[in-house]
Design brief:
12 strands; 5-stranded antiparallel β-sheet; single chain; alpha+beta
Length: about 160
């Protein structure tokens, strides 16, 4: 009987640990990057990734989506490491000419755990940042942005704030 109780206790702890880890990820955009931090100096912005409220190292993928002289462009983004857990530096990798939206996804295996759209204004700085969510009871759970949301963001890019 004691062995059964121990097994049950171990199983309950394992399930509780999994449930604590299984919550949704989150990301935030930090602009401007801190010029006094040598690991973010020169970065255009910093993407911070979280598991619940705790910084967590997670894989990012992204692209700069733009229109230059009427032609649609897509440029893959590379994120650099910083000195902080869950913090990713992004340098400017797209031209200053044209209208641009940064499409950033936090990857969980083959799926997107969270996404952000960073709309750049006429001056090239972020004019709007959105992290799309869906409601799950009282929670806002992050989701991948849709093609329509990206198209709408790009249509509004390049405008003054």
């Amino acid at each position: 009987m004691l062995r059964f109780v121990r097994s049950l206790a171990v199983a309950a702890i394992a399930v509780g640990a999994f449930a604590a880890f299984a919550g949704p990820p989150w990301m935030s955009i930090e602009y401007p990057a801190n010029p006094h931090d040598t690991t973010t100096r020169g970065a255009f912005l910093v993407v911070n990734t979280y598991h619940h409220g705790d910084p967590a190292a997670m894989a990012l993928q992204g692209s700069a989506e733009g229109v230059v002289r009427g032609e649609r462009r897509s440029i893959p983004l590379r994120f650099g490491a910083t000195g902080r857990r869950g913090s990713h530096a992004l340098t400017r990798q797209w031209p200053t000419e044209g209208k641009w939206v940064l499409s950033i996804q936090l990857r969980e295996g083959d799926s997107v755990g969270a996404s952000a759209l960073v709309v750049l204004g006429a001056d090239g700085t972020p004019s709007n940042v959105s992290v799309p969510t869906t409601r799950d009871g009282p929670w806002h759970v992050p989701r991948a942005h849709t093609a329509a949301e990206l198209a709408s963001a790009l249509a509004g890019a390049g405008e003054q704030r």
